[in-house]
TrEMBL record:
<protein>
    <submittedName>
        <fullName>ALKB4 dioxygenase</fullName>
    </submittedName>
</protein>
<dbReference type="InterPro" id="IPR032857">
    <property type="entry name" value="ALKBH4"/>
</dbReference>
<dbReference type="GO" id="GO:0030496">
    <property type="term" value="C:midbody"/>
</dbReference>
<dbReference type="GO" id="GO:0070938">
    <property type="term" value="C:contractile ring"/>
</dbReference>
<keyword id="KW-0223">Dioxygenase</keyword>
<dbReference type="GO" id="GO:0003779">
    <property type="term" value="F:actin binding"/>
</dbReference>
<dbReference type="InterPro" id="IPR037151">
    <property type="entry name" value="AlkB-like_sf"/>
</dbReference>
<dbReference type="GO" id="GO:0032451">
    <property type="term" value="F:demethylase activity"/>
</dbReference>
<keyword id="KW-0560">Oxidoreductase</keyword>
<dbReference type="GO" id="GO:0070988">
    <property type="term" value="P:demethylation"/>
</dbReference>
<dbReference type="GO" id="GO:0051213">
    <property type="term" value="F:dioxygenase activity"/>
</dbReference>
<dbReference type="GO" id="GO:0031032">
    <property type="term" value="P:actomyosin structure organization"/>
</dbReference>
């Protein structure tokens, strides 16, 4: 397997440790219709909610036939072992995030089948001006114990919007926050409009404050849905996929844009321009 450090999978743990350790369920669930994280029925926060900005979901972003074609094309190339029971295909520059170095040598661009996907993204208002410079395909399977730990994506090279296309099975992301700042909860709106009975956040005696570390939010993502994380969902909340939630094969296609440092007027504008020129040829092979 490709596991390193504290990360592991069922392949390296062996049969004696095949059963994953019990994990607590998230105590809130994101509602895309209202933009609220609502307390789950059997949690201590049932009946409470708070605004959860920075999440955009579009269901049925591609058709079932398009999904089948994309996965078939992916499976023609090798999947390389990755950490925590995942396999991956990378289409992007070679990056040393610790030393903040980028090399373009082996980077040949995004794959040809992504050209249509990127064009369809332009119909999403939240993706105006989105120019992907990297694509990472991740393959999750329950027999390998696939998972991904709570983490932030790098923000030295990668820009604000993280875009993922979820294929082959429904999934549920888990969002957690290490901030010491409290979260202000309000009674769950009963109107379905997303407005709070006590008024907008920041006022009203019905509010309740809890430490951020006690809060975790599930984001259900349907098969063939497009998910965008930006703003607070990108920079304040870590995202993860626990092993117990991978019950059948799932393929995640994640696109990343460049940070301002590599954009117009940034310190590495020239390198950013070079990376984009390569990426958008759509003639890439996995690196």
């Amino acid at each position: 397997c490709g596991c390193k450090g504290i990360r592991s999978c069922l392949l390296c743990e062996g049969p004696a440790q095949a059963a994953p350790p019990p994990q607590g369920e998230d105590n809130f669930t994101y509602c895309p219709a209202t933009g609220l994280a609502k307390g789950n029925e059997h949690s201590e926060f049932a009946g409470w909610a708070f605004p959860f900005p920075g999440v955009f979901l579009m269901e049925e972003f591609i058709s079932q036939d398009e999904e089948s074609e994309i996965v078939e094309l992916m499976d023609r190339d090798d999947w390389k072992p990755s950490q925590s029971g995942r396999k991956k295909q990378d289409y992007g520059p070679k990056v040393n995030f610790k030393k903040q170095r980028v090399k373009t040598g082996s980077f040949t661009g995004l794959p040809s089948f992504s050209k249509k996907i990127v064009a369809q993204m332009k119909a999403c208002p939240v993706l105006e001006g989105f120019l992907p410079v990297e694509q990472c395909n991740l393959d999750y399977r329950p027999e390998r114990g696939s998972a991904i730990d709570p983490h932030f994506d790098d923000w030295w090279l990668w820009g604000e919007r993280l875009v993922s296309l979820n294929l082959l099975s429904d999934t549920v992301l888990s969002m957690s926050c290490d901030s010491k700042d409290p979260i202000q909860l309000f009674p769950t709106p009963s109107t379905g409009t997303g407005s709070f009975p006590a008024g907008p956040p920041g006022g009203g005696s019905a509010a309740r404050r809890v430490p951020s570390a006690r809060v975790s939010v599930s984001i259900p993502v349907a098969r063939r849905a497009l998910l965008v994380l930006r703003g607070e969902a990108r920079y304040r909340w870590k995202h993860a996929l626990p092993r117990a939630r991978v019950r059948q094969r799932r393929v995640c296609v994640t696109f990343r844009e460049l940070s301002a440092e590599f954009g117009p007027g940034g310190g590495q504008e020239q390198l950013g321009r070079e990376l984009l020129e390569i990426a958008l040829t759509f003639r890439g092979r996995p690196v």
